[in-house]
Amino acid sequence: MKRLSRYRRHKAAGPFLMILALLAIGTTFSVASATVKQAPNAFARSAAIDEGKQIFLKGCSSCHGLNAEGGAIAPSLIGVGAASVDFQVGTGRMPMADMSTQAMRKKPVYSAEQTAALAAYVASLAPGPAIPEDSVLNYERDGNTAQGGELFRNNCAMCHNFAGQGGALTEGKYAPTLMGVQPKQIYEALITGPQSMPVFSDKTITPAEKLSLIKWIKSAESEPNLGGATMGRIGPVTEGLLAWVLGIGMLIGIAVWLTTRAR
Amino acid sequence: MTPAEKTIGTVANYVDERIGAAGWVKKSLNKVFPDHWSFMLGEVCMYSFIILLLSGTFLTFWFDPSQRDVIYEGVYAPLKGLKMSAAYASTLDISFEVRGGLLMRQIHHWAANIFMAAIVAHLLRVFFTGAFRKPREFNWILGILLLTLGFVEGLFGYSLPDDLLSGTGLRITSAIIQAIPVVGTYISFFLFGGAFPGVGFIPRIFTLHVLLIPGAFLAVITIHVMLVWYQKHTQFPGVGRTEKNVVGHPILPVYMAKAGGFFFVVFGVIAFLSAIASINPIWLYGPYTPGQISAGSQPDWYMGWLDGLVRMAPPLETHAFGHTVSWNILIPALIVPGIVFTGMALYPFIESWITGDKREHHLLDRPRNVPNRTALGVMSVTFVMVALINGGNDIFATNFSLSINEIMWFSRIGIFVLPPLAFIITKRLCLSLQRADRDLLLHGTETGRLLRLPHGEFVEVHAPISAEKAFILQSHEQATSLEIEEVDSRGVRRPGSFKNKIQRRLSRAHAVAVPKVTDQELKEIEHH
Questions:
Q1: Which of A10, A11, A88, A258 has the greatest number of beta carbons closer than 10 A?
Q2: Whole-angstrom Cα distance, residue B130 to residue B174?
Q3: Which residues of chain B make contact with A244, given a CB cutoff of 8 A?
Q4: ipTM of the shown complex
Q5: Do A240 and B78 touch (CB under 8 A)?
Q6: pLDDT at residue B211 above 90?
């Protein structure tokens, strides 16, 4: 003890104690605030529903109605299911920023917990498609890329383009790009049919086929640019632009140079 | 004479005694070509055609033009195990398993896009400078023929791989053929060997693409170039250049060196593009199945305006005597292009009828000095551009956050409103430029030097322009209109006076121009 007290007037003692105190507070806080992850029991679920209802009343009810019954500008949410909420809120589409054409993907407004609470609340109103479990979404193991490609070209490419880059719909609406969308969200979009998209029920595209689709989309996402710069993977329009601007542009430039008289 | 020269002389003499072309060769090597960058656009066409022949030959070594079904077992994993045509599978093999195959495919496709772009640029140069005038009308028609051949050759070329995009193009092609009243269905069945897609079309267009059309191309290009050779190249006006001479470099050595070097430049630019930028990535499109289609399916750029015209056509269809006439396809895909191409081919004759000018022309016009022709050209380009934009309406809609319906309505109205507007604006611009030329001649250029006169007035000093420039600005003819009387000297109406009336009206419109500076005016200026 005496040995230690020798250092109490050392000039590093103050900062050292400060760091020690901060560490102690931080550790205590993180231990105290850590919750043990449990299987959701009835009590926790009803708590989530209550929390979700509070969020809903604050953030959603002005359009969707106090009981999610819908209104003049927004649809009823009774029976849309947790998957729909998880997709719309989790991709940032809801709450909507601009009601002119369609909800666009943006940074989510609510945290994962708040989204889960909202989903629990809406799911409690009436049965609907549930959020797919992680164990169901093992597309790497259960999907087949080539089959997914066939399914994609048969069912998705007419709106989302051959490489999932998105495409135009009528009146300013559009099928968004599928690059960078989480597998869970792709699955949810398929079973809930957000906005202009049709629902692809498990009878139309089986759960196994959905995983193949996801696997193909993920492979298109990581597909290397085999032939060089792709200019957006949107077909010949950008190719023609490049042929004129770069190709003919360079050739005319060189022709001008070749025919310039030496001065 | 050095021993080397002696040897060359002996060899040359040996050859000449057997071929006897020394006189012709001598004359040809002394031939002179004028120098201007825009005269090299035709060369770009010819060189990219040679590149197309070479790279295309390479591709035929591995391409299997067959619609027989195969199961893909190649190296591209996302398509492994799929059923597809041998044509598509072999194109995948060329892309991924033949050494240099993908580069060669991309060279072939980029060269095709640049070939067509260079043809259009060359055509515009010839049109705007009046190089099509007598005696070069036939060569103009041959040029239009080459452009038309290019459309067909290009369409067949990008249809061959039998991928999803090219199959979509063929589906539209078959629909356009079927839109021909009465016989359309029969022609479509005949060409496709049955109902679409059939199994015969790919092998058939392969033969046309690699044999018949390139043969026709070679023949027409040869005549086209020989006529340029024989009729001599046109030149821009300048000091010492007349209707009777050609001022420029002789074939040997300067022109030959430049032209030969330029071939490698064209090859280099195309190879560079092919090395850095992907074109027609057929492995992403997938094999063709009639039940599938992709958003944003577009043809190559030179077909885009036709696609755009079809896209903007309102749904019009009539049924009569058991036949359906699809006006919405017939008009934009067959009638309008028919009018456009016929009009283009006949233009030299139409213009000479309007101006009454039957003389030979070897000196080119500066576009501003023929406002009507220039305005007509810009009007046509505007028409094609509006159609082309509508051809990519879905791409523009998604990438610029626009409504596809609004773009379509913009094009539907714009296709009628914008070309005449472009005509009027261009004509005014040309006349303004003529006025600027006149000012330049009479008052010289502004020097930016301000002078204060003794009584306090500020004036800017103008410097006279160079003699060369002054010559060019005065070189054109003052346009005059035809004087056609509706009645003859005895007061009797001429036969065909309606035709004469149109001719007179057009001729007057064509001859609108700012008065040229007269010698008198120039003299007065000098006395100042």
A1: A88
A2: 38
A3: 117, 301
A4: 0.91
A5: no
A6: yes
